[in-house]
Each structure stands twice: as structure tokens, then as C-alpha cells.
Amino acid sequence: MNEKMSLLELNNRIRDALQGAFPETLWVVAEISEIKVNRTGHCYLELVEKDDVTDELTARARATIWSYTFRMLRPYFETTTGQPLAEGIKILVQVSVEYHPGYGLSLNIKDIDPTYTLGDLALRRREIIRRLEEAGVFHMNQELPLPLVPQRIAVISSATAAGYQDFTDQLENNAYGFQFEVRLFEAFMQGSEAVPSILDALDRIFHEEAAFDAVAILRGGGSQADLSCFDHFDLAFAVAQFPLPVITGIGHEKDETIVDLVAHTRQKTPTAVAEFFIAGVLRFSEQLEALEKAVAERSREILSAAGEEIEETTERLRTAFDRYTRLSEMSLRKAVQRLFSGSGRLLSREAQQLHQRQFRLPGRVQGLLRRQEQLLENAGKELHHALRRTREKEKARILNLSVTLRRSVRHIVERNNTLLDNAEKSSRLLDPRNVLLRGFTISRQKGITIRSSAGIDPTAPLTTRFADGTTESKIIKTTRYDNQKTLLPGGDE
Q: How many CB atoms are closer than 10 A to CB 276?
């Protein structure tokens, strides 16, 4: 009959066997799947091993780091690697195999080699970058154009973070008086909840894309161990293909995270991000000022040329008027002289005839005198009328010249106003929003602007931007006008 034993006796035998089978310590490679630190300072871990191909779990074991050891190992590991002891990282640890009859098998961690984790982290980092490049999204955000006037900014940060306060203070107190519209989308910026929290903030911003010009991810200072969330594949993937330019200010000059690599622009600090936006508005302001100066200078040139033309025209009219006036005065003077000369000769001749006949024709003298008096009176009236007609003619001539001058000046001014209106219309056409307001749209696929039907992937969704929002469409078919081919999703004709 087989020997009977209690469970305790069995477990004690297993303990004794294990103690004799293993050396005092050995080095083990494993991945942390769970880690907890209790109030007494003891650290309890669950270590696992996964298949490299299938990623299926192949082994599991409990491990413990007692408080006096954990107080030394934890800062050593985090200072060396820049990473906290957390779920998902691989470690190389020195352990002793222990078996308790009441609690079973466990590993007591005595030491840890951070250099192994550094190598694994570097490998994982390269693998994430490779996956992003193969997916074709690594440079997508960097290819987005930054708006001419980036003033509407969506900020992802913690409301209490010093970096966020520095960012807003820098924008509000800029030396140029520029106004910015800043809206905070609060998120955790470190710890296990950071990645899902930031992804949620990005999703909320995405649904209000038209309300913003750019996105700023701000963190500020802190330990290097807190940066691990910014090397996460899902977060980097979301940032890389986000439809708005993403500007990072995580706060570490030497450490460049994967999110920094895929973002549109990386700045050292949140304050530097604020200066980046201020500089963008300043560049536009300088361009606008230069355009205003160019328009003003061109206007001055046009007005100067018009003034010279007006002066030349005025001078020609003045010269012509003076010449005409002199000629008219001379003609009038000659006419008066001729009139008076003729009247004098006539009167002299008549006086002689009267003198000769006064004795022979006393009865007719009085009649002749009355007739001559009438002739003289009529001649005076004719002279008066001639002078008045001449003055009226000259007055009308001068009036016509004045009307002609005014018309010439008005024509020059209207032509100059037309040139200024054309310059103003050209300036307004520089704003791309007017293109959208006229009914045009901008279509993107995989974050890339579509400029022809040949660049459309029938299997991918199409995002179309209007003046008042965006819409996402599924490609049913595409017709190309060069050879009249129709493409269906999947690439079939």
C-alpha cells in the first residue's frame, strides 16, 4: 500500500527538494504583468513570459521585493533607465527560489540589472518607430501646413501643472499685444492613466477640429521616469495622424520621446511653445505690414503721377487760356478802334457837308442833325452789344475750359480709386478661408491632401473639409476623366 502523507508534509518535501535543486540566487528574465506596493513598503509582482511569435502566456510566477531592498532598488532602477518599475517592461532580476507550505512558490528579488531593461526599452522604441513608418503615418502630422495666424489653440495638459500656467502667462502677456483663444482639454500627463487620458482629449478635440488652429501637448518639468507614456505606440499613432498640427512642450531638452518625433513641431518647454505661437502671429503681422507698406507706396506713386499729370494739364490749360484771353483782348481792342475810327471819319465828313449846306439848306439842317444823332446813337448801341457779346463768349469759353479740367481731374481720381480697390481685393484673396467660403473644399485621405483622382485609395475613408466643418466619406467609385476608368473599393475596375 502506498504511503499516506498530509498536504503539509508534501509541501515541506517540495520545499526541501527545491532548496536543494537551486543555488542560493540566480538571474531570471521576465516581464512585469502586475505590480503593487503595500503600505508597509513591500513590493509584490507577478512575472510572466510570453511567446515571441504568438504573444501567448507561457509562464507565470509570484515575486516579492521586501521593503528594505525595494527602497534601494527602486531609485537605482528609475535613475538609470529613466523608467519606473511598471507593468509591461522586461527586467533582469537576481532571485532566490522560495517555497512556503502555506503560500506556495514565490521568487524573492535580491537585485536588478537596469542595463538589460535599457536595452529592451531601446529595442521597443525602435520597434515602435518601425511600425509607425511601415504604417505610413510617421511624418503625416509634420506635413500639415501651420495656419497663417495660429491663434485658436487646444491645449492638452493638467490644469494644475506649472507648465500650463507658464504657457498661458506667456501668451497673455506677450510684448506685442496679440490675442489668443486657448481652451484646455485636461488629461493625466504621467502614470498608467496618462495614455488613455491623452487619447480621450485628442478625440474630443477631433470632434471640434474646425474650432482650432493647432494642438499643444504640455507637461513641463518632472523626472525622466514620468516620460514613458510618450513612448507609447497608440499615443504616437494618434498624434502622427491627427488632422491639426501638434506642438509638444514636454519639458525635457535632452530626452526626445516618440511623440516628439511624430509631432509637427517639438519645443523644449511650454514657455517655448507659447513663444512659437507668438512668433507665428508676428510673422503674419510683419507680412501684413509689409503688404500695407507696398500698397501705400504704390498708392503714393499713383497719386504722385496723377498729381503731376494734373499739374501739367492745369498748366497747359492756364497757358492756353492766357493766350486766348490776350488774343481776344487784342481782337476786341482792334474792333473798337476800327469802330471809333469809322465813326469819327463819318462824323467829320457829315460835319463838313453840313457846314457847306447850312446856308443853302437852312430848313434841312435840323433834319440832318437829327438823323446823324440817330446814327450816332445806333452806332453806340451796336458797340455796346458787340462788347457784351464778346464778354459772354469769353465767359463761356472760360467755363468750358473749367468743366474740361474738372472732368480730367475726376477721371484721374476714379482711375486711382480703381487701382486701390484692385489692390485691396488682391490682399483679401490671400486668406485661404475665402476659398472655402466660395464653395470649394479640401479633401484628405490618410492625412494627405488629395489633388487628383489618381491619388485616391478606394479602400480608405475620405475626409472633406468645408468652411463650416468636416465630413468623412466612404469611396463607392472613382471615375478618372483621362481614360474614363471607374475604381471600386479594393482596387477593382
A: 18
d(CA 63, CA 36): 11
Q: Could you give the dihedral angle defined by the CA atoms of residues 51, 56, 61 and 67, in that order, rounded to the nearest 10 degrees?
A: 90
- Amino acid 48 reads V
Nearest C-alpha neighbor of 281 from the set 213, 219, 217: 213
| DSSP string for 366-412 | HHHHHHHHHHHHHHHHHHHHHHHHHHHHHHHHHHHHHHHHHHHHHHH
What is the per-residue pLDDT across 166-198, written as a single tens digit (0 to 9) for each?
A: 999 999 999 888 899 999 999 998 877 889 999
Q: Which domain holds residue 401?
A: 286-428
Biggest CA–CA distance in the chain, Å, is: 204
Pair (473, 411) in one structural domain = no
Query: 87: helix, coil or strand?
Result: coil
What is the DSSP pairing of strand 90-100 with strand 26-37?
A: antiparallel
Number of structural domains, the chain?
4
Beginning with the edge strand found earlier in the chain, give each strand of the sheet holding 469-473 in spatial order: 448-449, 442-445, 462-466, 469-473
What stretches of 100-211 show up as alpha helix (H) in DSSP? 114-134, 162-172, 194-206
Q: How many CB atoms lie within 10 A of CB 173?
A: 9
Nearest-angstrom CA–CA distance, 224 and 84: 9
User: Are 198 and 138 within 8 A, CB to CB?
Assistant: no
Same domain, residue pair 112 and 234: no
CA atoms of 94 and 43, how far apart (whole Å)? 15
DSSP code per residue over 134-162: HTT-TTTGGGSPPPSS--EEEEEE-TT-H
**What is the pTM assigned to this prediction?**
0.49
State the pairing for strand pair 43-50/57-65.
antiparallel
For 271-284, the pLDDT digits (tens) are: 999 999 999 888 88
